[in-house]
Amino acid sequence: MKIEHIAMYVNDLERAKNFFVHYFHATAGEKYHNQKTGFQSYFLSFQGECRLEIMSKPEMESMEKPLARTGYAHIALSVGTKEAVNTLTEQLRKDGYCIISNPRTTGDGYYESCLIDFENNQIEITI
User: Fold this and answer.
1) Helix/strand/coil (H, E, C) string of the chain?
2) Number of Cβ within a 10 Å radius of residue 85
3) Per-residue pLDDT of the chain (127 residues; tens, 9 = 90+)
């Protein structure tokens, strides 16, 4: 068994798509738009079999997203090497994103950093 995809609602669908394509080299599938409900989505593919569905619809409620909360906490994206973690983290910092943990080896042996994206979602960058 495997996780087929993970989905996340976003307020700005095009900006979210461009963020993942630009920084994480995702490949975006065709945009789906249900004219009747206003629901729109993209499936984003990453190296390997992992996919992320980003979705938007008119009646969404934006809620506060504290760092420590129940439910889904973050998306972790592997960039392959320590150097790539460091480089991407610095590029995101330079581009104005909030880095909440700098690149480091964690107690459980992961090399990672973590940022807050433009919609206050946590994204972990790891090897």
Assistant:
1) CCCCCEEEECCCHHHHHHHHHHHHCCEECCCEECCCCCCEEEEEECCCCCEEEEEECCCCCCCCCCCCCCCCCEEEEECCCHHHHHHHHHHHHHCCCEEEEEEEECCCCCEEEEEECCCCCEEEEEC
2) 23
3) 888 999 999 999 999 999 999 999 999 999 999 999 999 999 999 987 889 999 999 988 877 777 777 678 899 999 999 999 999 999 999 999 999 999 999 999 999 999 999 999 999 999 9
First to last CA, the chain: 23
Dist. CA 70–CA 126, nearest whole Å: 22
Query: Domains of the chain, with CATH numbers?
Result: 6-56 (3.10.180.10), 74-126 (3.10.180.10)
Tokens 């459980």, residue located: 108
